[in-house]
Amino acid sequence: MRAKNLLSESAKLWREKCINTVIPNNEKVIKLLQSNEHLIPVEKLTILDQFISHVEGLKDNYNSEYKDRNVPLFPKEIITILY
Fold it and tell me: Is the N or the C terminus of the chain less surrounded, counting Cβ atoms within 10 Å?
């Protein structure tokens, strides 16, 4: 029973962190990248699109009752987008 409570509490804390920190920070990153899109190599613009899709899906999943299991995963390649 204790393990179940810990998992429930962890899920609650993660949800709060996503809503209050992760999603707003991701939106800031998107704005920064979009405003500097001219610095992104053309062949890496798809990575930006993947990141935007991930953030939008994550936000939708945390802000609605319906959870879409097909939300794109965080694109690890985002760390290479500017070089």
Answer: N
